[in-house]
Description:
This protein is mostly beta strands. It has one helix at 116-122; strands at residues 5-7, 10-12, 15-20, 26-31, 37-39, 42-44, 61-63, 69-82, 85-94, 100-104, 126-130, 133-137, 141-144, 150-154, 161-165, 168-178, 184-189, 193-195, 202-204, 219-221, 227-232, 235-240, 247-249, 252-256, 265-267, 269-274, 277-280, 287-289, 294-299, 306-309. The protein has 2 domains: 1-159; 192-312, no CATH class. The protein is built from 1 helix and 30 strands. It is elongated.
Amino acid sequence: MSPSVATPWGAIAQAECIVRDENGRITDCTPTAESILDTPYGRLVPQYTTDDTRRTRPLSVVFHPDGNLKSLPLEVQTLIPTPAGAVPAELLTFHPGGALKRVFPTNGKLSGFWSAADEFALAPVVRFETPLGRLEMKIINLAFHPGGQLHSLTLWPGDTIDVETPAGPVTTRVGVSFFEDGRLSSVEPIAPLTVATPIGPLPAFDPDPVGMSGDANSLAFTPDGQVAALAIVGCEIEVRCPGAAPRLFAPMRTLNLCEDDGSPGIMALRLSFAGNCVRLGADPESTFDLAACTFTVRPLPLDLPVMTLPCA
């Protein structure tokens, strides 16, 4: 019989595929029999069975180095008490100290036999409290800060939510995030939105936001409501600094040779503001003093350089 694995909430019976780190501590294991964990969120049963299409194998239970649970897939969808209200869940993740980090109402494995549309059809409508007020909608997940405050909500592709922001009302896709005190941290505009920045008004928009999490979106704010970061595709920025040649920053057209249709895309230019400086793009060397340099914003030319993307 497979060994059991101890957790802070009880033992996982008949665990297989046990992985240990270089110090011998268990980092993850796969249950093969029913186990009941007595947790602050109720009695939870880690996933140990499969089905033919949606959950083709049990997922691993994952541990933090301190022995606390990091990721816990559940055998059945279970109502979990959270700081935002009771949320049905098939997967839970936790911060290192044991506080709830993220709640996923569904957790099916996407494949050629099970699509995102299939998963969305099974997703429950969730009622939960947010700094925006009470919401009632389908979500991919809710995330929480270590202190229990709502960190973010992640939307299903195609869904949107209207959010009041320091830049005005924004129809938002992908997700919304919040600071610990409930103030708005970031949104993902569904269309270009002109916002005020230290270098002038800019059209905030990312046509291809990276990732499927509402934790960190392309239009971000400081706690006092100033623009902290944004992505742009509709213009280029020329920078002139004393003693240096002018530099031009712009989005780039992209061509993914692995796509069947070969249609080009566009890679947004990302800007971030901190203190008295602005960074244009990801290179730290492209950080400029706002007071010492001048910035000229111009409409985007048609002859953008092309970046060929590697196959995923």
